[in-house]
Amino acid sequence: MKFLLFDIDGTLMSAGGAGTRSLDAAFREILSIDNAFHGVNMAGKTDPLIVKEGLAKHGVPNNNGIVPQVLESYLAHLRTEIHSDKKHLKPGIPEALDVLKDMPEYTIGLLTGNLEAGAHIKLEAFGIYDFFLCGAFGSDHEDRNLLLPIAVQRFREKKQQEIVFSKCVIIGDTPRDVACCKPYGAACIAVATGPYARAELEKTEADVVMDDLRDTARFLNALERL
Questions:
Q1: pLDDT tens digits, 184-198
Q2: What is the value of pTM for the model shown?
Q3: In the beta sheet, which residues pair with residue 5?
Q4: Does residue 168 contact residue 162 with C-beta atoms inside 8 Å?
């Protein structure tokens, strides 16, 4: 048994800018700040960390409950903004998920910086949320490097089955996806479907780097070898 943990943004899908628009709308609504996240690099970060960086950029303290307030507003806007013609699944994702769901040696989960509610909103927009047994989210911890143990514990609770970190494979599109699994001895497949080019991902400790997942057979072969 292997536990496959997919990142969302840049790996499974593109929300067509819905996340940034929703964060900007939340800052406008709560703090009267326009275009709050212009120039902020969000790739691979958790939603709470992104909000804190946005607050710091504009000199706003992140105490007194402001972060949960902004995140609640963000989710409310995301429920509307996700319905955009610009959103799309990444190449090969529908085919890969369809094959993996019928392979008992693999369990599919999520490891993402999205809030759990945000992940639900984004994946339900494509009808793929139910492919994933469980996972770990930005709402569990703002430090992505602490999410894998949470995902593994949820696997154990859901499956009533033991699994070790070395049987976990992270599939992601940023160096942060690679970094969050390596301290635990988990494997990582990095895909160049997000903001990082293949050459940049090859400089990380990723076990496998792929342009995308449209070659399902190659992807399955890589999983088998890890």
A1: 999 999 999 999 999
A2: 0.94
A3: 109, 170
A4: no
pLDDT tens-digit series, residues 119-154: 999 999 999 999 999 999 999 999 999 999 999 999
Domains and CATH numbers, the chain: 2-15+88-225 (3.40.50.1000), 18-81 (1.10.150)
Residues 73, 79, 84, 88, Cα dihedral to 10°:
110
Let me know: does 185 contact 165? Beta carbons within 8 Å. yes
The DSSP code for 63 is -
Residue pair 2/188 in contact (Cβ under 8 Å)? The answer is no
Percentage of residues of the chain with pLDDT beyond 70? 100
Residue 95 and residue 216 in contact, taking contact as beta carbons nearer than 8 Å: yes
Give 161: exposed, middle or buried? Use CB within 10 Å, 0-12, 13-18, 19+: exposed
168-172 sheet: strands from edge to edge: 135-136, 106-111, 2-6, 168-172, 187-191, 208-210
